[in-house]
Amino acid sequence: MILRHVFDLYQQGETIPALVILFSEIFVIFCCLPVHEFAHAWTAYRLGDDTARLQGRLTLSPMRHLDPFGLALMLIAGFGYAKPVPVNIRNFKNRKRDFALVSLAGPLSNLLMSLLFFIISNVLDLFPRIYVCAVMSIFFYYIGYINVSLAVFNLLPIPPLDGSRILGLIIPDKYYYTILQYERYIRYALLLLIFAGAFSNVLSTLTDWVSNGVEFVAYLPFRFFG
Fold it and tell me: Is residue 37 among the annotated active site residues?
């Protein structure tokens, strides 16, 4: 639990690490989650569906995207969500393919942001004797890691997560649309499982694997500075 971890660090006198974790989470909520949703909206618009644009979701303003419960879940469990971007698949030329591309855009934006923040962290690491740079390096590294965790979480093939839309490309229509009919109930079950910590070990392992890969790419330009 994120807030519990922050509180424990504070109680142990680790004020700076506690603040770094807390403000990293806040930064992701107000700056990265809106990018994730904007990526969905922009991709849908480019593929012919202007539903999100007409509802004011083609924006980076956090106030248009944040969901109170998803925000609370983010602070408590470390995995959260924003308001789903409205999509009308009837406006797509190839419904399943285009819907999958719209769904992929969100997690992909998180991976690109993680790469950017890992690079920034590496730049700051070039100045280890400057205390502010050292702290900010950890701050941006943690933001990068959170973005990886969001990408991994959203790519789980479970409705209503983005991965379930991508899964629709490879399973027969009759099964795919049957699953969609029960999406609301699956969502509630998913939230209960998250609070119960059922995915913690799997998500942590997958996030570490993906994060290691993104970190490797981010570090490539800095190999000559060692």
Answer: yes
The size of the chain, in residues, is 226
The pTM of the full predicted model, rounded to 2 decimals, is 0.89
pLDDT at 168: 79
Return the closest-CA partner of residue 55 out of 44, 68, 70, 69: 44
First to last CA, the chain: 36
What pLDDT was estimated at residue 2?
Answer: 66
Distance, in Å, from the CA atom of 62 to the CA atom of 193, rounded to the nearest integer, reads 27
Tell me how far apart the alpha carbons of residues 214 and 187 are, in angstroms, rounded to a whole number. 29
What digits encode the pLDDT tens for the residues 7-25? Answer: 777 688 888 888 998 899 9
Positions of the chain with pLDDT under 50: none
Task: Please tell me which residue in 14, 25, 37, 215 is annotated as part of the active site.
Answer: 37
Number of Cβ within 10 Å of residue 58's Cβ equals 19
Burial level of 15, CB count in 10 A (0-12/13-18/19+)? exposed
> Which residue type is seen at 35?
V
How much of the chain is helix, strand and coil, in % rounded to 5?
75, 0, 25
